Amino acid sequence: MQLTKGAAIRLTILFILLGIGGAYSWQIMANPASLEQAKTQSKLLETIYINGNYIEAFIWFFFAIGFALNAVKKSGKTRIYRLITTLVFFLFGCSDIVEVQTGAWWSPWWLFVWKVSCGLSMIILLWVYLRDRTFDYKL
Asked: Cα–Cα distance between 44 and 138 in angstroms, integer?
């Protein structure tokens, strides 16, 4: 098997980083004070993860509120699209709250499906918006 020069360089960098990580973890396990410090840092990162997801959920809720308020001003097909968008953004925010409870966005499987469905819905709604908008240029 022949490696290209680029692949050999990337593999070398990967092995060096793995070696540094292994040496660092060995040092933590050898020193009980470092182990406590690592546990403290782990709890801090978990707190940041939890609070970050709640903040993200509220951001999605604010987007949903914005679309709902905009839907009130519109009529016809545009109002329906805005209301669907409101629902999608609201559900995506709810999925972040559920993610805090489960600890991961990919587990359980139904949460992953939920998030992917919301993401695809957002992409489709953006496509519909871009397709249906009209440009009114004045030259």
From this structure: 55
